[in-house]
Amino acid sequence: MSYFNYVNPAVQNLFPRVTAKGKKLVIAEMCRCKHGRESHAGESSLAAGHGACQVADCNCNQYSWASNVERSNVVAQKAGR
Known about the structure:
By secondary structure, the chain is α+β, with helices and mostly antiparallel strands. The protein has one domain (9-73). The chain is built from two helices and three strands. The longest helix is centred in the C-terminal third of the chain and has 6 residues, at 73-78. The radius of gyration is 13 Å and the shape is globular.
């Protein structure tokens, strides 16, 4: 799932996931540059999505977490996750 043209395949397997308290379903993580983690380079399991942003005209050199994109866990339970 991506909102952008570039999708880092190493990041796709990280989502969706349930928050520690189990109340929200995290479907993506956003960088300070306003692009998703899946839009950032980095192929290894430890560096997945932590490199430079791959969106055209973005000057972000390294992913820096800003927020989660969340959905209610009720949606996840209905989907069988």
